[in-house]
Amino acid sequence: MEIRSTTDEDLAVFVDTLHTAFGRFPETPGPDGGGVWWAALEMERNVLAVDPGGRPVGTAGAYSFELTLPGGTVVPASGVTAVGVLPSHRRRGVLSSMMRHQLAGLRARGEVLSVLLASEAVIYRRFGYGPATSTRRLSVARHQGAFAEPRARGAAGTRDPGPGPGSVEVLRRADCGTVLEEAYDRYRRAQPGALSRPHRWWALGAGQPPVATAPRYVALHRDAHGAPDGYASYSLDGDTLTVDETVTTDDAVFADLVRFALGHDLVARVVLKHVPPDHPLRHRFADYRAAEVTQDTDWLWVRLLDVPGALTARGWFADGELVLDVDDPFLGERGRHLLTVRDGKADCVPTDRRPDLSLDVSDLGSLYLGGTAPSTLVRAGHIHAHDADAARRADALFRTERLPHCLHWF
């Protein structure tokens, strides 16, 4: 079996092989090649697995993204995608060969980490990826959706004061120009765990709405000065209004956009996709049970390619030291690292000191963005703490000011 890189001339066979692997048929692209989810594929970054007879039997790709880390640092990140093996060639090592080939290529590019969305959660941990962010879908019955401000100390009541000083403008997706692209870019630079959306995606309508050009309405929120500071992309099916994504890092703006959705005529239920698990929205409702969690799932998975490089790239919010013994069985590597944090910056060097924590590289991926506490994985039996205080010290060190969240689909 051969694993080879692809070029633009391989696009048709790459897309056909991938769809065959999943038992699907590709849609028809538009005249410019856009309007389909794979329109933004970077063919120079993809690979094909070819059997001895010359038939393509597997695919794997990667997008060029930027990932926002705790502390606001932005780093390059390869978004692994389009991974599939024909049903006739599974359990023959095709996937492992492609992933090993791909990881070597990502390292050669000098990147410290890669990310993916896992179609099946049991597959990618063995390749060193760990679930690093999660996301929720909420369903709100309109008749239960009244807001009530939290009772402040000394306040007399809990009546909802209504929307803030900004305003909401309703646009069609097709008429939004670059306003969504610009609003998303501001959001993703402020939100740990968020990925960039390159201009190519917006221009080609690749991905899912609102990047895709499927008919959508957009509730565009403007601040008191008229500047856009958030949006919600939505559609109406029967009496259910579904919000594809709500983009803002301002909790008050988020609440105003939800108010808008709940106030829409002829709507009995509002479904909100991609709500951060720690978002205070549910506490906004007079009836805490108004927002039902209908999905709570992993989203972004992280794989560290360069442990010292990745740990020194992110920001830190507590001082301390940890010795991490990191095992990478897929690549046959093991390293012991002394992580020292002072004033928000980290130093990470090899050491022969006794470890505080022993862990798999996939578990370090889960910890990396701050979405999972080390003590949680100690309790789960994934991480071994070598002394009684190690998990507590690790929790304090990996803690972040804002939990990571990603809503980009790729």
Describe the protein.
The structure is a single chain. The chain has 410 residues and is of the alpha+beta class. It contains 10 helices and 19 strands. The protein has helices at residues 11-21, 94-108, 179-190, 199-204, 251-262, 281-284, 307-313, 361-368, 374-379, 390-398; strands at residues 2-5, 47-50, 56-68, 74-85, 113-117, 130-131, 134-141, 167-172, 217-222, 228-237, 240-247, 269-275, 291-298, 300-304, 320-328, 333-342, 345-350, 357-360, 384-385. The protein is globular and about 60 Å long. The two termini are 28 Å apart.
Topology summary:
Elements: E1 2-5, H1 11-21, E2 47-50, E3 56-68, E4 74-85, H2 94-108, E5 113-117, E6 130-131, E7 134-141, E8 167-172, H3 179-190, H4 199-204, E9 217-222, E10 228-237, E11 240-247, H5 251-262, E12 269-275, H6 281-284, E13 291-298, E14 300-304, H7 307-313, E15 320-328, E16 333-342, E17 345-350, E18 357-360, H8 361-368, H9 374-379, E19 384-385, H10 390-398
Parallel strand pairs: 4-5, 11-12, 15-18
Antiparallel strand pairs: 1-2, 2-3, 3-4, 5-14, 6-14, 7-12, 7-13, 8-9, 9-10, 10-11, 15-16, 16-17, 18-19
Domain N-acetyltransferase: 1-154
Pfam families: Acetyltransf_17 (PF17668), Acetyltransf_9 (PF13527), SCP2_2 (PF13530)
Binding site for acetyl-CoA: 83-85, 91-96, 119-120
